[in-house]
Amino acid sequence: MSDQDAPTTPSPAPAAPSPASVTSSPAPPPPSGRPPKVTNHGRSSVPISTSNSDFTDIPETEYFDAPGPRGYPPLTGYIDVSNVDMMRRPNERNKIEHHTEQYNSDQLIVRRGQEFKIKIDFNRPFNPAEDKFAVEFIIGSSPDYNKGTYIPVFPTAERQSAWKGRITDQMGTEVTMGITPLANCIVGKYSLYVAVSTPFGIRRTKRDRSRELYILFNPWASGDAVFLNDEREREECVMTEVGIIYHGSFDDVAERDWNYGQFNYGVLDACLYIMDRSEMPITNRGDPVKVTRKASAMLNARDDDGVLVGNWSGDYTYGVAPTSWTGSTEILLTYASSKMPVCFAQCWVYAAVFNTFLRCLGIPSRVVTNFYSAHDNDGNLKTDIILHDNGSIDRNRTKDSIWNYHCWNECYMTRPDLPAGFGGWQVVDATPQETSDGMYRCGPASVQAIKHGQICYPFDAAFVFAEINSDVVFYSRSKDGTLQPVKVNRRHVGRMVLTKALGNMTRRDITDQYKFSEGSAEERTVLEKAEEYGCSRDKSDFPVGDVDVILPSLEISMGESFNLTTEFINRSDKKRTVNVYVSGSVVYYTGVISSEFLFETPTVKIGPNKTVQEVMEVKSEDYMRKLVDQANLNFIVSGKVLETGQIISAMKVVALRNPKLLVEVSGGDRVSEEMMVSVQFTNPFTFSLENVYIRMEGPGLMSPKVKYYSLIPEGASLTWTESFSPQRTGLTRVIATLDCPALRQVQGQATFTVNP
C-alpha cells in the first residue's frame, strides 16, 4: 500500500568454512547428471521476474509497529472490504470502451493509458475524511514499486502514485473507482488487491483469481508507443480476425485465407506464455520494440524451442503440412499446452501466427508479401547467378536464391531509439533465414529507414533492404574458374509488395512505401546512401543487346499438358544465331530446385528485325510425379548470341492451378442459432489421393476441426457437414483446406453476415 518497494527477505548467505575444516584433499569429481539451474543469486538480492504466471503471496495483514505485551491489537471494528466487482462482463463499459469485448475470456481485459472502473463494496459507507484505502496491482514474482511491478492506486487527488485513481461514484456502501494505468506500463496479467488502513496496520483482500486482469497495449491512446491515429487502420490491424495472405508469383498472385483468432479463448494466455518461455524480464514487457524483437525469435523453434518448426522439405510425416493450417488458434493453444514446438511452418505460417500474437497484445500489425524476394547469402546487394561459358546455368555454384514470394509482418510503433521520422511501420520477421545478434530473428526495422537507404539503424534494416533491392547479376565462368559479369537485371527483385486492403477482402499495393520508382533520381540517391553503409552493388554497365527473349504468362491447371512458347526478338539489321538452353524445373517457392523435368538446347536463327518462336511440349507425366508443396514450375531460358557474345536470359514461374473446395453455409444467420456448413470435394485426377486431411474453422463460429480420409479414389466425391452456432454479429467466413502428400494447397471459403 505504500509507495516504497515491496518488502523482501533475502536468502541467508552460506556459512563460511572454519579454518580447521580446510584440507588439501583432492578435488571432488565433477557432478554427474543434469547441471544445476543457473540463478541470479549472488548478483541480485531479488530474483529477476521472467514469468507472468508466477505471483508472490502478499500478506493479508501488515502491522505498523512491533507487537505489545499482549500481542498485536485487533484490526476489527474499522472499514473493511466486502466485495470487489471487476466489471468484467462483455457488455459492460470497461470492455466496450477499451475495445476488448470480443476477447473470449472471463477476466477483465483493458488497455493501458485509458481509465477503467471497478466497484468496491465496503462493510459500511465509505467516509473520505476518515477512511483510507488503496487498490494494489502486482505483476510477476518480485513486486517492486520502482520497477513498475507493484503499483498502489489511491482514490484521492492529494495522494497519487504512477497510476491515477479517482472515485467516480458512491452509492451506499459501494464505491466506483476509476483507474488509469500509465501509457507505458508493463503489458500482461496483474493481480488486484484492495488494502484498507487502520491506526495499527493494513488489512487487504485475499488473492482471488477472479480479480486478475490483463492490461494490453493501446493504439487508441495518444501516449502509448503503439498509438495509431487512423480508425480504419486500427480496425483492420488490431480488431480484424480474418486475413488474406498473398502468395504465388508477381504476375499470378494467389490468396490464402487465414483466421488470426486473436480473441479466441486461451490465445491471450498463450501469447503471454511465449514471453514467459523466452524468459523475457517482466520489466521489459511494456516496450513494443523489445517485445516484438523477442517475439520474432520465439515464433520459430531455432535457438530457443519457440512456437513453430520450419520445414521446407515436403515431408511432413510427423506434423501438419504448412499448407494445411487454416488459422493460428490450434498452433498457439497446442504450444501452450504441450510446451513443445509445433510442426510445421513456412514463411506465411510464421507471419500469420506472429500477426495473431501482435494483434492479441494490442500492437497494430499486418502480414506483408514481397514478390521475388532475394535471399542473399553474401550480405551484399547482389543475387549471383553463375553461367557456364556456353551460357547455361551452373547450378552447383549458384548459391543465392530468389523466393517467389516471402511473407513478413509490419507492426506500428514509435522508435525513440532512432532519429525523428523513423517511427511508424516496422518490419519484423519470424521466419528463420539468417541470425541477428546470434539468434534467428529479424526486426523491428523501420520501413522509412529501408525506403531511404538508412540501413545503419537497428534492427536488421540492411537485410530487409537487400530482400527488396538486390540486383540479379549473371556471371560467366570461364574454364579457368574466373567470373566475369555479363548481365545485370536491376528490376527483378522486390517487384511488388502487397498486404490486405483496409476493411475489405482486396489487396493493397504498398511497394511505394518500401522503394522509390525504378530508375528515378530518388532511387539512385537511396542506393548510393545504402552503399555508404556497406551494401555494395555491381557497377557494371553493359551495352544494350539487340536480341531479347520473352517467356509468356501461363495459366495451367494441375495435371494438364501444355506448350511452352519462347519468343526471340532480333532488333538488329543482321542475322543472329543463338545457342539456347531451356530448363524446366519443379521448385519450392523459395526458388530452390527440387528436380528438373525439361532440358532443351535448340539453336535459334533469327533474321534481321524478325521474331522467332520456339515451341516445346510439356507433358503432365513429365512433371506431375515430381511436384512439391506449392506446385511451382520454374522455366529459365539462357543463351549466347554467337555473332556478338551477348548473354540473353528470361525467367518465369508458373504456379499450377489446384482444384477448389466448395464450402456452403445454410440455416439461420443469427447469433446463437444453429447453422450448417458443408465442405465438398471431387478428385479430378487419374489417381487416388491417400491420407487426406480436411480442416475448417471460422472466427466467432467454430474452433478448428479436422477430418481424415484414408483414400479418395479417382473421380470420387466427398461431403463433410458440421453444425455450429455463431457467437458474434457481423461479416465473417468459414475457411477450409484439403491436404495430402500428393496434393497441397487446396482451399475454400464461405463468407456471410451474422445478424443480431
UniProtKB/TrEMBL annotation:
Catalysis: reaction(s): L-glutaminyl-[protein] + L-lysyl-[protein] = [protein]-L-lysyl-N(6)-5-L-glutamyl-[protein] + NH4(+)
EC number: 2.3.2.13
Cofactor binding summary note: Binds 1 Ca(2+) ion per subunit.
Biological processes, Gene Ontology terms: blood coagulation, fibrin clot formation; nervous system development
GO MF, any single term: metal ion binding
Keywords for the protein's UniProt record, in alphabetical order: Acyltransferase, Calcium, Metal-binding, Transferase
Family listed: Belongs to the transglutaminase superfamily. Transglutaminase family.
Required cofactor names: Ca(2+)
Binding site for Ca(2+): N469, D471, E518, E523
Compositionally biased intervals (Polar residues): 41-55
Uppermost EC category: transferase
Active site: C347, H406, D429
Pfam families reported in the protein's UniProt record: Transglut_C, Transglut_core, Transglut_N
Name of the protein: protein-glutamine gamma-glutamyltransferase
Domain Transglutaminase-like: 339-432
Stretches for region Disordered: 1-76
